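Retro notes (design track)

What went well: tokenization of the new backbones is finally stable.
What didn't: we kept losing track of which sequence belonged to which structure.
Fix going forward: every design gets posted as structure first, then sequence, in one message. First example under the new rule, 279 residues:
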């Protein structure tokens, strides 16, 4: 049982975490928020490319045991038809909010996404998850101290009536996106075509980075057919597939005052809905 002093200490730490611009008060009135600030607040957390940051040392750390098990758990949920990888990316990278996205370890967010998905899709209740967390916490009171937790399932469930998507069946022997081959019709663009990235509102989820929106590039390759990430991330199986393209941009067209060689280029993958013919 926590003491009043311990609770106060935790709340004091939480109070230090800020997620607003210093020039805008918390819980502002509508007329205090500019259009630019609104767009910044609506930007999806995982679209980090091109944002300013201080240099950091890259450390390639070995995954811990719980991280490896989290990866396996997420893969099993995919193989079992419970979700697709695009759903996990949204839940773990966007739905968490910016402080958690930037502040917690990578696989911690994966694990968070598992709990949220299982509750939202009605596989378990919040109470079942919470009771289980409390039970495991009590079992290892005082910490693991180098031990690996023992799995102690309560029963072997009957999975015959579990709601599942079609991907785990239709992708067998084909893979994803191979399962969608031949379903999107004729590709609108071909290799060498000049295109411009549309500046669409990117609410809730997208895989098209902001730093290419509005820029012109060249189709480097016609990749494959698949539902767009903005649809697939919600588990929609009824949306049509569309073509994906590798688009090549000049770095000098993407970044103001780019000082590198003029031949420098960047390539990224973009679904057809985000592209239009240049000029």
């Amino acid at each position: 049982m926590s003491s009043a002093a311990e609770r106060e200490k935790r709340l004091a730490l939480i109070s230090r975490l800020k997620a607003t611009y210093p020039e805008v008060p918390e819980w502002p009135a509508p007329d205090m928020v500019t259009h630019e600030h609104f767009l910044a607040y609506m930007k999806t957390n995982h679209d980090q490319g091109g944002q300013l940051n201080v240099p950091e040392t890259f450390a390639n750390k070995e995954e811990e045991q719980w991280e490896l098990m989290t990866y396996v758990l997420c893969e099993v949920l995919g193989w079992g038809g419970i979700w697709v990888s695009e759903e996990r990316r949204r839940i773990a990278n966007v739905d968490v909010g910016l402080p958690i996205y930037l502040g917690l370890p990578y696989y911690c967010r994966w694990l968070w996404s598992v709990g949220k998905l299982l509750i939202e899709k009605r596989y378990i209740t919040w109470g079942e998850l919470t009771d289980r967390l409390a039970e495991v916490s009590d079992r290892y009171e005082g910490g693991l101290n180098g031990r690996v937790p023992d799995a102690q399932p309560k029963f072997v469930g009957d999975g015959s009536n579990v709601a599942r998507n079609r991907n785990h069946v239709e992708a067998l022997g084909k893979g994803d996106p191979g399962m969608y081959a031949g379903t999107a019709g004729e590709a609108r663009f071909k290799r060498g075509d000049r295109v411009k990235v549309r500046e669409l509102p990117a609410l809730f989820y997208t895989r098209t980075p902001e730093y290419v929106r509005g820029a012109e590039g060249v189709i480097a390759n016609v990749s494959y057919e698949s539902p767009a990430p903005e649809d697939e991330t919600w588990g929609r199986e009824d949306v049509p597939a569309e073509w994906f393209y590798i688009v090549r941009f000049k770095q000098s067209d993407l970044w103001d005052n780019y000082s590198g060689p003029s031949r420098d280029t960047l390539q990224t993958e973009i679904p057809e809905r985000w592209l239009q013919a240049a000029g």
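Added context from the reviewer: Residues 65-79 form the longest helix (15 residues).
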